[in-house]
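Let us work through a complete example step by step.
Step 1: write down the sequence.
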Amino acid sequence: MNKNTIKKHPNEYFPINADFNEVLATGESLITGSWVASYDYTGSLLADGVIIDESTIAYGNGFLVANCISGSDNQTYKLSFRAKTSNLNVYELDVYVNVRD
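Step 2: predict the structure and record it as tokens.
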């Protein structure tokens, strides 16, 4: 399993951590962050708010955190995150969510 893969239940309200620490230089920190997009198992873009509660994006200590609010059983979703750092670098990270009851 990819280390950026998370398992959750269909109706579970679950925090998703996007860990950017591997790409941060010593002393570099996140200064802004956002959830960029969500895709379903076919690769189709999902409407805003379908799987991520957009009001819950937070950042700190090299992580972006967003709350995953739904998902259909036996499906995998791709969540894309973007972070800007104190060194003005911009990074993107994909996190996969396997939904299983």
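Step 3: interpret the result. The first strand starts at residue 5 and ends at 8.
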